[in-house]
Records
---
Amino acid sequence: MAQNSDAVKQAMFEELQKILHPDSDQRKSAEARLAQLKFTEWYGVLLAEFTIDQQLHIGLRQLASVMLKQYVNDCWADGGDVVEDGGAGDLPAIDAGATPALLVNDEAKRRIKQILPEGLYDQNSKIRSVVAYCIANIALYDWPGDWQELFDVIVKCLSGTENSVDGAMKVLVEFTLELDRQVGEVAPLILSEVYRIFTAANQYSVTARKYAVEILYSLLRSINTNIETRQEKSAILNPVLPNFMQRLIEGLTAPNGPHSSFQLKTQIIKILKYMISDMSKFVQPYVGTILPTIWQLLTQLADFYVKVVVNESEAAPFNGTDQDGDDDGVEDFTQMILQIFEFVHTIIEMKKYKAAIVNVLTDLVYITVLYMQITEEQAQQWLEDPEKFVDDEDEQGVEFTIRVTAHDVLLIVGREYEQQLLPCFTEALGKHSAVAEVDRNAGNPHWWKIHESSMLAVGSFKDMIVESPASFDMGQYLALIKMLMESQASPYLLGRCLWLLSRFCECDILRQPFMEQIVNVTVDSLSMDKPIVLRIMAARAIYGFCSNLKDNKDERHVLIMSKLENFFDGLVGLFEQSQNTVLGLFLEALSAIISFDVNVTATLCPKVITVTMTVFQKFHDDRFLVEMVQDVLKILSQNPFCLLPLQDRIIPTLVSILNHDQGGDQQTLAPDIALDVLQTLVKYSQAPLSDAMIESAFPSAVHCILRTEDHSVMQAGGECLRSFLAIAPEQICRYKNGEGLNYVLQVTTMLLNPMNTESTASFIGRLVITIITKVGNLLGDSVDLLLKAVLSKMQLVKSLNVIMSLVTIFAHLILLQLDAVMNFLSTVPGPTGETAMSFVLANWLSRQHLFYGQYERKVTTLALCKLFEHGVTTKDDRLNTVMIKEQVPATTPSGAAGNTGRRTRSASAKTPMVWVDTPVLVKIFKLLLHELASLREAKDALNKNTDSGDEANSSSDEEAADEVSGDGGKMSFLTLLTHMDDGDEDEEEDEDDRQLMAELMNDPIFQCDTMEYLTKFIESFSQHENFRAFLEKIDETEKNILQTFNIPSM
């Protein structure tokens, strides 16, 4: 064995050296050889030896360590083929057609576990990190059972050198991150050790103590997740946690230096935030100390933050910390402030702390606005990179700066404390204004920054201020804004003034002559000699003026209408100089301008089309900008003066793209984008469509779709043809004596082809429904063929959105042509011998609770009502004999009321489930009850603006876990999907829904509120003679739903 092992070791050493060779052929040869050596039994042992051998070149050791890391993942996480004998033997033959498991024996595993701890003492931090990861990964599977000595090894390292302490702490960090099943056994050992390290400030470095806090955080999360009862959690935590909490709180006030740092404090705050939100019972005794300490930290650091970060008027005095330089120190300081705001965010949303927040509300608003100021670094970056300026200042921005985070906290304060906020807000702004005036008189060049952040706050609370004019003196604030506009202190200040005034421009207090002065300043701010940030803010102001005064009928509307051409001319010059994100903002402003007045837009039409087409052709690969372009095209299409000029200009371009050979190298614009744009033009046009649309664009679109193999083109093409058919069905049918309808059917058949990917049929439901409802009388037998194709597609798809799209076809038709659908589904066989009725209902009812979208949920719910009513009243055996398979707990008899006691997540997971047959009408009835409950929950949440999160925070940790894991969690998820009648849907989706619902809306039943209809439907059924039979088949949860709607369930 030794000789074979030495031979393999020498071979591996040589191949590792070759991998580091600059010659690519040698590297490839070595990689292939190592791929074979990987399947020898002592491969991992040799990699471990290479990794810790400090006599070898560091590059080779790092390479070996990376390979060892993967080997450990493969052998412990995935499990290799364990062999009994310890011989390495010859290299095994590798079957090229298979993926063999790694060979590993217990002796090799033991040897690796003996070798690795030595690497924790290594001088190279990267080696220590990889070794720590490997040890932690192995420990997840072997400790404590198969590696009992590991903890002793860790303790020994913690008493050794600085390197070994670092290595041992990294092991514990990695281990506790993934800790799951053993947490109850190992947590007490680790907790006592990390407490010892954290409190031994003179013995251990700040970095080691920071690791100790990270480990505590991971342990708390793991204990809270994996330990079921509060008693078990207490048994683990109580011996250490009280003292630990006290020392953590003290750690927040320790000065930075050898024993503390911003990073350490950040980790402490992270733990306190987690415990307050998720382990409130354990942290409650210390809240009275935690809240003042955090508040003191936030307020005391504010002046420091303004001087060092916002204004850079003082150097960052970050000496004596564990940082490498001032830049890192500033970054760590910033991260700590962000973590404090995360903590404040959590506290604000918890009902139990409302009284405490109200007591400091003025100071909280004051300090938050202070942290919202623009920093010098941001001001410089934004001037140099306007794209970043737009990204950072966008409401949907993703970068978590202190300005953004503080602003978010302020918005949450406004939402949670609306009634008490405005007086406190006024007082806080007054203090800021007084301080700014003192700074201005003292010659401080940064005096304007607090005014800018104050105006951002005022603009954010616009609705509240407008609704409560007595609580905020807007007239006085406008006088201040007028003075600030004239100060010329900063383009950021002037831009914010314009933005704020555009937000309030429809208020009666903002009238002539100040209004005209504002608009003129806005136009002037668009000129090319102004800073780019001011021009961007002026564009935002234009959007505000046009959007807010569009429906206004007084002189302000006339004023804006007289300036629309000036607005447009100012924007046009900016289009040529701007890139993607800034262009998007300018296109938004352009959309607002051309939406304001159809007659002015008619005069601007040629220029608008030119600008829009230029952006479209230049940035066609930017999906975000293409959507913005389509918004402009939509507005122009709905303007009768602009429709024909627009089509004359854009249709030849689109036809050229669609007719282009997609296999050629010269293609510059994707045909799926062209089809999307064409769909927009058609969807927002009025019938009859122009000759260019029917004779040129329509056939080009069809031929492009039929010859493509690109699934995105197929998907976009189906939607495009649906719009053609929805707007001008007669014209499509007349095209070449019926050839147009054949084209549409060819494309539909192509999209339903089972051999194509599922994504091609994502919207097929809407296309098929449009075909049948618009031109079904012309299809003859083709209707049956089309529905059979739908059934064939349904057999193979798994994606929810595609299943939903296909099911919706039958749901829609049930509402319009119930008898025809029943006949079809009961006579056509399903894929496994049952009727298509059983097949469709099985796919439908098992997923109904997951469906989403305004149209889809409403139609499927109402269709189930109609099916249920048909089955109950006619006793139609074609429907009533269908059985639906569903899973129920094995301990609960099918159809009987289940155990209604609270059950934990793990208890639920352990309950065996069995498949049972449920009559289809019973299943539908259950689904309708749950649908009604989720609609009620959604409506209550919207109308009452209840704070269910606060209630959860005030309950016990176990109750919170049960709510997440039980039916309550499911209902909450459904609530997000159930805004069926007045939710915030995408505007494009709304238009599609309107077109699809038009046919249904002829029946008054479908014009009602879904919840109201469903309630009346079930109330009516409760009077039916069969109602009691159904009551016997539902569980306690479903009976409770009936009781909440005052429907007797006994």
---
Amino acid sequence: MKKNNRLLPDWKDSGGLQQVSRMMKCVLFFMLTLVCGVEGKVYSQQYTLDLHLKQTSLEEVFNRIEAQTGLKFLYNTLLIDSKGKVDVEARQEDIRKVLAELLNPLGLTYILNSNHIVVKQADAAAPQEKTVIKGKVTDSKGSPLPGVTVRIKGTNIGVVSDNDGHYELTLPAGTDPTLIFSFVGMLSQEAKYTGQRELNITLHENISEMEEVVVTGIFTKAKESYTGAVTTITEKELKAAGNHNLLSSIRNLDPSFNIIENLEYGSDPNRLPDVTMRGRTSMDVNVRDLQEDANTQSSANMPLFILDGFEISLQRMMDMDQELVESITLLKDASATALYGSRGANGIVVITSKRPEPGKLRVSYRGTVNIEAPDFSSYNLMNASEKLEYERLANLYHSSYNDTQLKLEQLYNQRKIDVERGVDTYWLKYPVRTGVGSRHSLRIDGGADHFNYAVTLSYNNIAGVMKQSARNTLSGNLFFQYEYKNLKFQNDFTVSYNKNNNSPYGSFSEYATLSPLYTPYNDDGSLKKMLSEETVTTNNPQITGNPLYNATLPSRNDGRYTNLQNNFAMEWNILPELFMRARLGLTKQDDRSDVYLSRDHTSFETDYYTGDNYKLRGSYVYSTAYYFAYEGDITLNYNQTFKDKHQLYAGFSFNFADDKTENYGFTAQGFSALNKDNIGMASTYAVESKPSSSEDHSRRFGSILNLNYTYNHRYFVDFSGKLEGSSKFGSNDRIAPFWSAGIGWNIHNEKFWGNPEWLTQAKIRSSVGYTGNVTFSPYQAQTTYQYSSDNIYLNGVGADIIALGNEDLKWQRKFTVNLGCDLDFWEGRFSLTGEYFREYTKDVLMDISLPPSLGFIDYKENFGEMENKGWSLNLRTQMLRDTERELYWSLAFGTSDSKNKIKKITDKLGAMNDENNKNETKKPVPLYEEGESLDALKAVPSLGIDPETGKEVFVKKDGSLTTIWDYNDKVVCGTTDPKFRGTLNSFLTFKGISLNMSFNFQWGGQTYNQTLASRVEGVNPNSNCDRRVLYDRWKKPGDRTFFKNIALEENVSNLTTRFVQDYNYFQIGSISLGYEMRRELCRKIGLTGLRFNFNMGDIARFSSVKEERGLSYPFARQFTFSLSASL
């Protein structure tokens, strides 16, 4: 006998001892049954059960009942095991009813007393008549559906279809029940049993079915009662939106997720993009760096990325294998972001990875070939003949000195002869290629009832369009899950290795500016080192190196990182309504980068590297970084429904984290030979340079309380509160509270609607809350010192104070209000989601000026204030839903807008504005002024080109006209933030063939056309440039043109409203054509699934502004061929 009093008939022995044993067991079982039968007459206590179990053994069901009631089961183990697995669904139901519905169809009965439940075979004198019905469940394509729940209506009796879609269900005797067939993502179907032995069912996809839960990364909440702004993107939608990378797929599906276009770096695979969600709500704390480097703007406004509950970097997100992703949830307002406190102020992207399912071993593979073709459609450069004429008009061949004039005429005549004999070098073709890369993903998963596992290997090779530029990522993942009774253990280990190479051909801008009059090769076919070495005048011709020669030299410009991440989780189902989870994540990453230039590189062909400095030719820049972090949390969830009307959810979580980064680097120079690409061969550190290092170390902790109450599925309220502490702030204000509250109303569940067929969902909701922000250096609040070897006294190294600390430095806070509605009509035929939000940020960290007498010019203080508001609208409609012909077509449209305004800045920032306003005259820089937007453009008003003189006419602040540009006359003349941006997606499926298209658009903003300012008017006449400089210029009095006279001395153009243009565009983001083979055909070739797919990305772009795009690295069009197979 086991300790829990269960009888074991499988005890084995031999001979007479075995017979005696069997007799003793029978006598004992009879006595217990007799006793229990007598005691059962006095049973009066009522027990209710709450069970939700699928394909569970009877033994496990009994364990769950014991945990809820305290009763003990007695049964014959072999008898129970022979009954297989069952489904049980009970919500606050009496134990007698549950046991009867569970045991009677299995030919079992029970006896219940005050302490025990004895389960036995039903009385043989009145045997149960068994009625068995069989069948197969398929989808609309005829493919079998495994895992479909088949249940008798009004009972808890049911089974689940097997891997081939077959099911077999035993029906109660003497009944003609109705069967219910249900499956996630499919429309449920009922079928009446009329005596048939076989019943086959076809389930149709429920395209409009909304997700039942919202995954926040901390708590999993019912979507029906969720008050926040959220977008959930499924695996199917991700694949339909293209497979270039996860970030671009999200952008194609939700317009509030914006990848800021980078005209400089185009399609560079090694450049991290700038990402925002719902616009910009903050300024970077280091304002001077922000003015000098626009990339820091994105870091202050970048959303948080969470993978399975743990934070990951943008770099890891960009390199992630899309095949591992189950879904992505975008959390946008305070209802969700308050859960993450300071980290969630800019929104959260929650990625949920795929988890293995129990069953037989499954192997799946996806192979992809990626082709990238350079896109030069935005370039309109002059040919050699045009370039020579442009140089003549720009007076490059004119001098007031006779000797010089003669040489210039000889140079012009020689070049004219070269042009006539065919010299016309198209430099853009030399550094580029059609990049061919590949991606491979292999996954093996399976498991039994209590143990599941998955092993994934993936390799991604991105071949950029610049020659030899590449990004290679190799990653492996091992996941396992073990269940023991009501405990679940998970471990997820991922290792990634990335190697990235930048092109040795240098910057693409070098080739865009090289004159077509130059030729890269000598007459003998060898590469020229210098395209021009001697000058006639100071500016003609310029000394120019050959970038193709540099590309042949030994060089290095690469980086690499190794990332190890292990996430462990333990889950404990304490009670059906009470759940606890503990998680611990460890992350370690090592980075390294090397940049080596050979001593023969043309950049060293200057006067500086002659004489004694000749030995300093060649350089090597080395840097390395080490990162280690851990984070963990303990979460408790309670979910209970009372009287079928009151649903209460409560969650509590405590979390902690620690991260540390160390950076080291130095620059060396002086290499004795051109192929010495080892840093140990350098002769010295760079002039006025020495090794440097830095360290960032921060800690945080917090506790979260979340409450949600729903009444009768109609009215719901939600509250979240978080107390968070961070080491980044002053010692007097390191802990801060954050909160959010929301209310909502499911109008469609009101009785006055009368349950109309046309209305599926009508929900309105609102939320408010306070969140914080800590996207800055860990040591802003502390007084910091710098040790210097220049300060040595008595063998001691001195230190200088470089920053004054602020013990009162506190959290940057953001108050958010969100109003939203969700509408759905005719079971998903038409759905709409609308949002309006307003965000007010205060206590923005800024530089405050100090009197010079204190020894410091500034320090950090909470002073700035900002406002950001906007709206979003998402529509989805099913144009066709013909299940008989297997034809489905749906359209999705999304648009959004956000506007920001600076409410308050410091005097220090105001002084910086004046300084930048004065010094930067050629291109817009961020100028922060109270009452204006972060995205505002400022320039001097212009009336255009004077037809009589060919000079530009400006409008001064007093209204007078002048031809002299003055920075004091700058005014706000537009904003780079559009009135709205959006996406349009089409999803068409017919008999396994799918055609999906994605479009992006923007309307209503402005841009400063830098091509006109620096590549037409402001261009160096020795450089090649846009054709408009030659054909659209002013030539003679009376000409009405857009561009000035080429020959003017003041041809360089300063900031003017003439180059501020309305910026609207429409882009064909991706087109995807796929075919999925029917499952019955797959089985004939030994597979369970097979799909082919062809995708095109960044196909075409139609813009109101003609400007050069991809200056340092060209843009590219992507073509992808993929195959997915599983067995």
